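Known limitations

Files may contain more than one protein. Parsers should not assume a single record per file. Below, a two-record file is shown to illustrate correct handling: read the sequence, read the token line, then continue until end of file.
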Amino acid sequence: MKKCLLALFLPFLFLGYGQEISVVDSAAVKKLDEMGEYMGTLQSCKFTLERSIDEMDLYGLQKHFYTDEISMVGPDKMMVKSRGTHHDKDYYYNGSRFVYYSASENNFCVLPAPDNIIKMIDSLHENFGIRFPAADVFYPSVTDDLLAEFPVILYLGEDMIDGKECSQILASNNKMNVQLWIENKEEPLPIKLVIIHKDGNQDHYEATFTNWQVNTKIADSVFNFLPPEDARLINIMAKK
């Protein structure tokens, strides 16, 4: 019943003269804080991310699919293997340098990087436009970031995702809706993330977190890139 009432109520939150109404549910904030605090305690983790992205081409809006295998050791190691419709690429970060490798083109570039994962993600996105899939859930400031950007944050109740009981959170502003499902366990891991853009083409982004392994031993060699035979070293330009 709670979800049905919210579904009737939400369309009216942004009516009027473009002025957003602030509605922040303390239960939603509590769930986000619990997830953020737990993620901050992880020493290491491995997981699979199944993603779909809507993109516009000559024939209209098309949906593309990607699978990311991600390994992280805090505070300064990360590896991503991403395979999908438009790319086969890997990221390697070992605390001092970042390597981007295109498996489909067999070329790579090497960039200096800050000394922790969050700074590295911010730096490479700002300077080179590199996006890391679903990275927001690892930010210590995830709750504060959502509160700053979304005037509406609601707890939508419980839902089942792939056999896991989850709490569903909605964050909404006049540009997008963000929905996050957090598993209802002592380890409140993120299970699914959906972003729906309200402007333009109403495109969707969806990511499902699976195969979580937390605080597992991961060898340092995983984060060090060894170029395949005949791989070409290339340079990429920073954004102006």
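...continuing to the second record:
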Amino acid sequence: MITVKICGITQREQAEAIANLGVDFLGFIAVPHTPRYVPPDRLPALVKNLPAAVKTVCVFRNQSVADVQSIIDKSPFDAIQLHGQEPLPFCQQVKELFPDKLLIKAIAVKQLSDLQTAQTYAKVVDILLLDNGSGGTGKPIDWSLLTNFYSPCPWWLAGGLSPENMPAALIQTKPNGVDLSSGVEDSPGVKNIAKITQLLGVIHGKAWKSDKLQ
């Protein structure tokens, strides 16, 4: 099964609706001055008492350990996502502070050497997220770089994904999961429930599957 994360959620009603569709992870952005930013005082109400089957992720980018700790200590998140240029020691420190939280590290993939960097992080984090480095802009990675990619930990594909290009992305890259934001929304932070329903139908359907993925 392909894990599905919908990121950049800003509304409680949409969080509940998307969780009830059967999505695996919901992402909330704690990065100031970004289009889908949710202020820290709003985060607890957004993530409390959601269906138990869905996991919640708080996304940070190039913020301090103190920033991460102040938010995670006050909100019941299941996972922490680091979406900037956080060095390996920083990830280790966050993992030591929150050993009960899943740690997701985003890696910008622009050339093959970036995949070697990703494999280094895979020794410390729980999940790798490979994207183009811009976050929420709808721009895909060059999928051909990922054709033979191997990771010792699960990895998710992000960047420019939509219900329309999902079959091709899954066949070419064979990820453990996918992470979508702009590809399933009407405007930044406002998700399109019909598109997410379509996405899940594509992922859990049979039409896109090939012998490579059986």
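Parsers that stop after the first record will miss the second one. For reference, the second record is described as follows. Strands lie at 3-6, 25-29, 55-60, 79-82, 102-108, 127-131, 155-158, 177-180, 185-187, 190-191.
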